[in-house]
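User: Let's play a game. I give you a shape written as tokens, and you guess the letters that built it. Ready? Here's round one.
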């Protein structure tokens, strides 16, 4: 009697074990073999990297992510195919932040000899028709400044009779393939008139943007300030 009971128990255990093994092999066939790989980060913060690759890791099939702040590493458990994809994603995002180069152009209107500089034609195209209402335009000066996200830059621009100061604060930079945007706060000042104008804009990378114009004195030239932003990657 005891031997029969023992036989039945053994059969049940073997059947249960076979069912469990079948489930395990079935899951492995469904999801693939899982591996563990550690990625070394150069520029990204580990917690930021986790947010980027989290959509590729599935906890329901045993996928997992861990990271170490001190060593700047991130460890992932996933299928080999997914790990290769994660490696590609991290290579695209783990890059130094681009610098922003700002090319300012200062134009004098109704002052001096008119110029046929092609850069003036570009500025005219960027303005509404009713803004460029002066007789003569002259490119009075240029300034090129480079900074990084959340930094400030400044440069003097001297014309025939006035010294201007252009100050710019570079805010959030959004870089995408082929372009992006940068938030700018810009002030135009001069030794004689102090603050001429200030503005804040969200500039598209590569697009010429006229920031504003002012005429501090009615009998002198009006000044127009334009800027073009570009991204410079290391």
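Assistant: Ready! My guess for every position:
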């Amino acid at each position: 009697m005891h031997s029969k009971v023992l036989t039945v128990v053994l059969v049940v255990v073997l059947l249960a074990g076979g069912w469990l093994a079948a489930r395990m092999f079935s899951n492995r066939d469904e999801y693939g073999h899982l591996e563990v790989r550690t990625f070394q980060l150069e520029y990204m913060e580990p917690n930021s990297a986790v947010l980027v690759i989290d959509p590729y890791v599935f906890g329901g099939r045993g996928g997992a992510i861990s990271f170490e702040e001190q060593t700047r590493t991130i460890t992932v458990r996933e299928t080999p195919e997914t790990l290769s994809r994660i490696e590609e994603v991290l290579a695209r995002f783990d890059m130094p932040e681009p610098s922003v180069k700002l090319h300012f152009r200062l134009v004098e209107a109704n002052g001096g000899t008119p110029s046929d500089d092609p850069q003036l034609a570009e500025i005219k195209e960027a303005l509404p028709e009713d803004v460029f209402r002066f007789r003569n335009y002259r490119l009075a000066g240029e300034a090129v400044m480079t900074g990084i996200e959340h930094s400030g830059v400044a440069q003097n621009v001297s014309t025939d009779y006035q010294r201007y100061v252009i100050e710019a604060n570079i805010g959030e930079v959004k870089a995408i393939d082929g372009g992006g945007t940068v938030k700018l706060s810009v002030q135009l000042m001069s030794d004689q008139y102090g603050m001429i104008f200030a503005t804040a804009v969200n500039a598209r990378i590569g697009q010429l943007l006229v920031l504003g114009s002012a005429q501090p004195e009615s009998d002198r030239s009006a000044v127009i300030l334009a800027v073009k932003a570009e991204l410079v990657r290391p």
